[in-house]
Structure to design on (390 residues):
């Protein structure tokens, strides 16, 4: 069991990361409320991968733009940031397998960071610098993963010729300022009744949800973490999963929070958990685990992930819950907006620049799957962003 492991034997994390010549305060001012671009998060990525991270920054008297970068070769073999895995699945031409990953290597959120006035010329210089750093040699690529539509549009206007590849749907749940009752009123009557029943079933089960600092309970979460990964075919152990949790505690400190689902008086043996981060008016859900041998079909999952956060929203001033990719239909049924995320090859001579029709056909097929599902068709937001590169 995870709780019997030798906690002191789990190694502490070193996470030295550079920020393109900026100090951490300058970088975090630039990152703003983009949590997955902050210095702490990028240091956590370094601790997870063991590969130093850096950034490319360009500035002038009127402003600055920047983006984090990392060598692709430093990522684990299973990483969903390996671009050719996505291209193989889509039936599209491969890129050079080595090169520079533009963006963080965890979190599925890449933003081009900006300050000062809006300058297309500054962004063009950023693209040029990224190519110099990561993609000038014939055997290397320079690829941004999990970009927003806005950044894709502006990078293409700055001189990127490759067609962007649709990667995933990113779920964001808006929460009214008034909280639970106002949130429920945003749903049709039948769905509202279903959500009330899910919460009631959980509430009457006797299970409890405690919100704790990850630092106070990470050593109890290994078993549910490993159980969920095993359910989806990943071989691991509680002790292995606790290594990553220890890294989050070491690097992110009190920014790392967790909703722990447990029997009354037995928080040391959790049934499940949801690790999350609070950033400005957002809750960012990061890691979910449930001990499948101890689940009772009492609506644990959505109560731990969402309903407890909506209940707490007015006190925490939460206006958005970032629920991420995967299980988009279930999230859409609980009010999520689905926003597109893209891959964009910044390399000057990208093979994707010569396969625009094939890329657009893939993007249309990807979009059509969501349009064909009545649970997700109305959640695509905004619709024009999804159709822009189809």
């Amino acid at each position: 069991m995870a709780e019997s492991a030798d906690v002191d034997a789990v190694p502490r994390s070193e996470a030295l990361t550079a920020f393109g010549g900026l100090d951490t305060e300058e970088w975090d001012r630039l990152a703003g409320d983009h949590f997955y671009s902050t210095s702490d998060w990028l240091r956590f990525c370094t601790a997870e991968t063991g590969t130093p991270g850096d950034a490319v920054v360009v500035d002038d008297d009127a402003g600055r733009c920047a983006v984090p970068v990392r060598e692709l070769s430093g990522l684990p073999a299973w990483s969903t940031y390996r671009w050719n895995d996505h291209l193989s699945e889509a039936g599209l031409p491969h890129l050079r397998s080595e090169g520079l990953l533009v963006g963080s290597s965890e979190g599925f959120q890449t933003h081009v960071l900006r300050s000062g006035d809006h300058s297309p010329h500054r962004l063009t210089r950023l693209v040029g610098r990224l190519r110099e750093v990561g993609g000038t040699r014939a055997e290397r690529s320079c690829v941004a993963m999990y970009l927003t539509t806005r950044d894709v549009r502006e990078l293409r206007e700055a001189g990127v010729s490759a067609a962007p590849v649709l990667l995933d749907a990113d779920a964001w749940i808006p929460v009214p300022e008034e909280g639970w009752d106002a949130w429920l009123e945003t749903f049709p009557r039948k769905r509202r009744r279903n959500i009330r029943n899910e919460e009631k079933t959980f509430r009457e089960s006797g299970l409890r949800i405690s919100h704790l600092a990850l630092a106070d309970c990470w050593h109890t979460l290994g078993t549910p973490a490993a159980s969920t990964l095993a359910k989806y075919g990943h071989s691991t152990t509680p002790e292995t999963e606790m290594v990553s949790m220890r890294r989050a505690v070491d690097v992110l400190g009190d920014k790392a929070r967790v909703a722990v689902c447990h029997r009354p008086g037995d928080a040391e043996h959790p049934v499940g958990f949801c690790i999350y981060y609070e950033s400005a008016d957002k809750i960012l859900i990061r890691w979910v685990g449930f001990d499948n041998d101890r689940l009772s079909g009492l609506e644990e999952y959505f109560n731990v992930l969402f309903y407890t956060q909506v209940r707490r929203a007015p006190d925490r001033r939460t206006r958005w819950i970032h629920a991420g990719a995967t299980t988009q239909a279930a999230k859409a049924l609980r009010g999520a907006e689905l926003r597109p995320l893209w891959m964009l090859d910044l390399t000057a001579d990208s093979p994707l620049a010569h396969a625009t029709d094939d890329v657009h056909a893939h993007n249309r097929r990807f979009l059509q799957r969501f349009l064909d599902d009545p649970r997700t068709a109305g959640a695509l937001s905004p619709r024009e962003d999804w159709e822009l590169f189809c």
